[in-house]
Amino acid sequence: xxxxxxxxxxxxxxxxxxxxxxxxxxxxxxxxxxxxxxxxxxxxxxxxxxxxxxxxxxxxxxxxxxxxxxxxxxxxxxxxxxxxxxxxxxxxxxxxxxxxxxxxxxxxxxxxxxxxxxxxxxxxxxxxxxxxxxxxxxxxxxxxxxxxxxxxxxxxxxxxxxxxxxxxxxxxxxxxxxxxxxxxxxxxxxxxxxxxxxxxxxxxxxxxxxxxxxxxxxxxxxxxxxxxxxxxxxxxxxxxxxxxxxxxxxxxxxxxxxxxxxxxxxxxxxxxxxxxxxxxxxxxxxxxxxxxxxxxxxxxxxxxxxxxxxxxxxxxxxxxxxxxxxxxxxxxxxxxxxxxxxxxxxxxxxxxxxxxxxxxxxxxxxxxxxxxxxxxxxxxxxxxxxxxxxxxxxxxxxxxxxxxxxxxxxxxxxxxxxxxxxxxxxxxxxxxxxxxxxxxxxxxxxxxxxxxxxxxxxxxxxxxxxxxxxxxxxxxxxxxxxxxxxxxxxxxxxxxxxxxxxxxxxxxxxxxxxxxxxxxxxxxxxxxxxxxxxxxxxxxxxxxxxxxxxxxxxxxxxxxxxxxxxxxxxxxxxxxxxxxxxxxxxxxxxxx
Length: 592
Hints:
This protein is α+β, with helices and mostly antiparallel strands. About 25% of the residues lie in helices and about 25% in strands. It is built from 18 helices and 31 strands. α2 links the parallel β1 and β2. It is globular, with a radius of gyration of 25 Å. The two termini are about 30 Å apart.
């Protein structure tokens, strides 16, 4: 694929159907919990997209799992956008292009000429208009029993800066309250939230357009972690391979995405908040109820035969894992251009992306690598990364096992771990002392030669309160301990336990067998359950030139804490309901 422009959702559905990547389900299904559980079971087996044509309580079909595999992303976009970005980087590196070099880039110039937007007439999105709107007719999903209500899970939220400084298209979750109001989850460091805060400062309503559906390019552009001054519609055009089609709204306001399935138009008033959530999010836990702005919907446009796209988030890996990896492949060639000294950068979807990042950087003079790490922690949404691993080694940092061993062999624990306390933390990460507040850490392993040989077997004794030791990676011992409430000081006891002195890292977890069952489980159990400033302990700590030097073992307390939200689990009633039905509606190969 890639040569044919996929102009809307149904184009993409046709491509998936023709390539054996779609199952159509005619049996009645419930958007309350049932669709989400069917989706989770199919994606756990690497299964296809799902088109539910008989949705309880709604006349609109629901399609899910559109992007839940690398193959479907390839069908959506092909190699064209990846090749274009690589060519763009090559052009930027040619400081003095010759005529011959320009000729060799003629494909780049031709593709660049196609990027932008265009206004079209007779747009399908204008076929129907509900005034007043009836949001209850949309088959919004409730994915987890603990969710605060039904949510739009693939929302494309468009706003414009009140001062005329550009637009933002972002994916901010939308909770339906009633037929004409929703909550809008504008987290910190989000472009749409900046627009709202400026409108609120002025005492003005912020016009908002909520698109649902449209070409795959529009959906991924809304998710892409772009710098604030890069227009998302430009990225949508690049991904689509042609100018992005917009249509004038006959009632005024923002232009409409011409081939979206739904478009809700309205405004967000200043200084109005309502409780939003809880919501089972992509970290694998419940994000809790908090006050957020309110979107007042004035009218709802939709196509006559509209299809409602949705996704389901929860404990990794879900559909967002594949989307995140694709976007990293697309944008990673740009990192060395915008962050000098950064050769490779990876954020790990297994941890919800913000919890763990790794970078390969240059280190041509003493501690240059530290400067490279600071560039990453100061760049856009990357600034919300909680734990950053930095190396100058000639290795692929996306291979966590090799990276972790390489770094542990080289780290100087007296100088190479930096913890930054009292900083912002991702809104969905509840390991800190309060929402949006916490800490971050940078761990460096530099140099060609290892400093130590890592232990690979444990035969010693553990301190009281610890059982079931498991070596998951060289130099890393995972131990199971008493619960946090029973023994909050257990990490300090482990760090002081002399038989563990040869181990660089000890992870304290609630269940060592579960935490070492796979790389996915190891990363999730490790990086989503500790806060650097509160949960890292050492045998001893010395302060030299305002830097704490640590003596191993370094103990990471990755136990569940009382203030953490609950881990997402399917409720028993939904499990039984889907068990009874799934054999009749899915081919046997997609039934766990």
